[in-house]
Amino acid sequence: MAALAALAAGLLSWVAAGLGPSAPQSALATDFARSAVSGQEGALTVRVHALTNLDAEHYFGASLKRIGVQAVWIEVRNDADTAARYLPILTDPNYFSPQEVAQQLHGWFSSGANARLDALLAHTGMPLAVPPHAHTSGFVFTHPDGGLKFVNVSLLAGQRLSGFHFALPIPGREYAVQRVDFGELYPAGSREDLSFDELRARLQKEPCCVKDEKGAHEGDPLNLVIIGDGIEPIFPFASRGWRLNEPTGAASSLAMAKAFIFSSKYDTAPVSPLYVFGRFQDLALQKARSSVSLRNHLRLWLAPYTVEHQGVWVGQISRDIGIKLTTKSWYFTTHRISPYVDQDRDYLLQDLLLSGMVQKFGFVQGVGVSGEARPRVNLTDDPYFTDGLRLVVQLGTQLRLPSSVEFLPWERPSLMTGTALGGAAH
Fold first, then answer.
1. What is the distance between the alpha carbons of residues 390 and 365, in angstroms, rounded to a whole number?
2. Dihedral sign, Cα of residue 260, residue 264, residue 266, residue 267
3. ∠ at Cα 103 (97, 108), nearest 5°?
4. Shortest CA distance to 265 belongs to which of 320, 220, 327, 315?
5. Are 377 and 383 in contact (CB under 8 A)?
6. Distance, CA of 296 to CA of 425 (rounded, Å)
7. φ, ψ dihedrals at 274, nearest 5°
8. Element (DSSP H or E) covering residue 353
9. CB-based contacts of 190: which residues, under 8 Å, 6+ apart?
10. What secondary structure does DSSP assign to 311-326, as a single string?
11. SS3 201
12. Which fold has domain 21-170?
């Protein structure tokens, strides 16, 4: 019966797709404007609203969810004497064009409805140029998120690049980070504030590696430090296509198994718990390839200290390159990591520099060298090689070209590690 129900649902979806879009309700745009959140910097004001699946179906007359698209409504008011230019690639590095969305929503037997949808989408995409002393609005078509959507709106006006960041709650899946009460991690006022020189000394003394739940065994190297306030550090990752992870549970485990069986992509797959500061990770992010067994992923823990009143996150990054059997997991499988973890660390530096939100970066000792002759291993016995350095990146809202980012003159990686080919792009 379950199989018949699934078949019937599939047939109904197929038939609905063939019938094409229904009549759009474009007057709903005023509702999006009323519920939008806003931000202002100088002469620029930005408002955004992320459409739910139901919002989009009513407005466009068709299901964007069916084609894996989420629409974000954006309005920009420019009170300056110079034009501003919107950069949608920093909202979603793989955003969809309006024509691409329209084509995917076309029905086979509905030329009139298709034409109406084409006309609507042709005139409602977010314009790239905002004239001086004017305002404009429209949609940018992004990849779907649930629970939280992190939206970057970047505007170039003259020689100045301005960034606006919004965290929008929307119905949908829950992310693991939403279960963390950051206010309860440390008592108010208990975190020591450090200078950058003091931070360097402190980071050199941190443990080399993550541990298991009992703290008895060491695992992957702690090769990453992120500096940033509140949720701001998430936005540079979001602008480069990194995704949050779902918590481990029945639904995500089933989705993981399905992705493994069909060798398909799972952008928000759970990330196994590793331990620092006596707890598993506060935040995890990943960049998946076409298969669930292949991804670049990182874990971050909020440290019990700050630097110049900004939060410090100690972390670990590695690249999953396959699946292997293991007796160290209750489901008898685990990801296999690439042994060249410095390449993954340096890939991340390149990625964050391209986000434009890096203010400073440098390297510190602390991990310890692990060479090919006698490599250390992680908790599932994968060997790893490293020059022993931790990447330290300070993120901020002021957008900068890579050439204007400050380098912290602490340590320098060997020229033989972290080559451009090593940090293979997605």
1. 6
2. positive
3. 170
4. 320
5. yes
6. 10
7. -125, 160
8. helix 341-355
9. 304
10. EEEEEEEEEEEEEEE-
11. helix
12. Immunoglobulin-like (2.60.40)
Q: What is the pLDDT along the chain (426 residues), one digit of tens a residue?
A: 444 444 444 434 444 444 455 555 556 778 888 999 999 999 999 999 999 999 999 899 889 999 999 999 999 999 999 999 999 999 999 999 999 999 999 987 578 888 988 999 989 999 999 999 999 999 999 999 878 899 999 999 988 889 999 999 888 788 999 999 999 999 999 999 999 999 999 999 999 999 999 999 999 999 999 999 888 999 999 999 999 999 988 888 788 778 777 778 888 888 999 999 999 999 999 998 887 778 899 999 999 999 999 999 999 999 998 765 555 554 545 768 899 999 999 999 999 999 999 999 999 999 999 999 999 999 999 999 999 999 999 999 888 889 999 999 999 997 644 443 334 333
Please list the residues that pair with 392 across neighbouring strands: 225, 362
Task: Please state the φ and ψ torsions of residue 115, each to the nearest 5 degrees.
Answer: -65, -40
Instruction: Return the domain boundaries, the chain.
Output: 21-170, 176-408
Q: Token pair for residue 313?
A: 């996150």
DSSP type of residue 80: S
- From CA 346, how far away is CA 325, in angstroms rounded? 29
**Mode of pairing for the β-strands spanning 279-280 and 283-288:** unpaired
Neighbours of 263 (CB within 10 A): 12
Distances in whole angstroms, Cα of residue 261 to Cα of each of 117, 323, 332, 337: 37, 12, 15, 20
Q: Any idea which residue has 């949050």 for tokens?
A: 244
Burial per residue of 201-235, b for 16 or more beta-carbon CB atoms within 10 angstroms, e otherwise? ebbeebebbbbeeeeeebbbbbbbbbbbeeebbbb
Burial of 140 (0-12, 13-18, 19+ CB in 10 A): buried
